[in-house]
Amino acid sequence: MNKLSSCLGALGLIVGLSTRPASASDLQTIGELHPPVVASLGDQKITVFFLKNNLKDQVRDVHVPDAEIFYAPMSAVKPSLNYVWKVEGEKIASVFFFERNFPERAGKSMFVLTKTPESNTGFQGVSYSTQELHLVKNGDRLSLEFFRGNTYPPELQNCYEGRDLDKGISVECAYKDAASIKKFLAAQDAKMIADSELNQGNRQKPLKTDGDKASAACPSPNFSTFLSAFSERADVQKAFVQQPLKMVTTVAGDPEPEMQKSSLSGEQLKFPIVPDLAKREAQGLTLTVKEEQGDHAVAILQKPDTDYVFEYRFVRGQCWRLEEVMDYSL
Description:
Blueprint: H1 2-15, E1 30-41, E2 44-53, E3 67-73, E4 82-87, E5 91-100, E6 107-119, E7 123-138, E8 141-145, E9 159-164, E10 169-171, H2 178-198, E11 207-208, E12 215-216, H3 223-232, H4 234-239, E13 241-251, E14 258-264, H5 277-283, E15 286-293, E16 296-302, E17 309-316, E18 320-327
Parallel strand pairs: 13-18
Antiparallel strand pairs: 1-2, 2-3, 3-4, 5-6, 6-7, 7-8, 7-9, 9-10, 11-12, 13-14, 15-16, 16-17, 17-18
């Protein structure tokens, strides 16, 4: 309900619609925690909104975040407002971007630095925390996503600045602005690259399929980005299909259809297993992410208004791999 209220409030904020003039007694439920920010990747752009819940202090027995983040595509044929994640912090001190180069974490992200007053018997001051949101490009669509499995460096979380009352000393946060955090992230990224060069068996090493000379580096740890590359490139499919590949096919049965299981490997596998965009458009097929939970994800290929349905089930280790194909078509 909070998310719905925020979404509706944000829509009104964006389009500037009002059915009547506001009076001094009206309580504005949605505020602005930080001015909107334009995020871009290539030639695609989105506008990011940071919307504050002004009713937070009036709600009891239910946790309400300080604010929520939404984004809207720019120059979209069908305008939309999309929820990203919550903000836990009374003030946004900075919003900035950083692009990693380490292959398995490569990509551009938006970072939100929050600042929150802290006052208790042991400390008086403020704390800074950094939140990462990922820019994800899927075809001609750019989105901003929060990955629940993110692990943040402890240095960038609850970084205190003020007075330690127990020890009677002043403490200073080393990561309270964009410049210092970017420097930290760049050093971290460089270390990952250096470590990978010393250890050829790590995640950066290209993976090869047995009996095939083709190889490919992991396209992305983000499943939507991975799926986009997987569906377009045969070399990626050959590198990231688990063998033997489990196949489940619908066959006619009496009285109901039955699911027949088999396993394919080597020359039994015919590529591409997932048709590319050109073939999908020619055949009227759609490929979408059905679900993603932890290290498991499911993509669905279907033809609307027909019984043509395939599910592709992936697992994530060093990279995503296709482990099972479910053919529900009759």
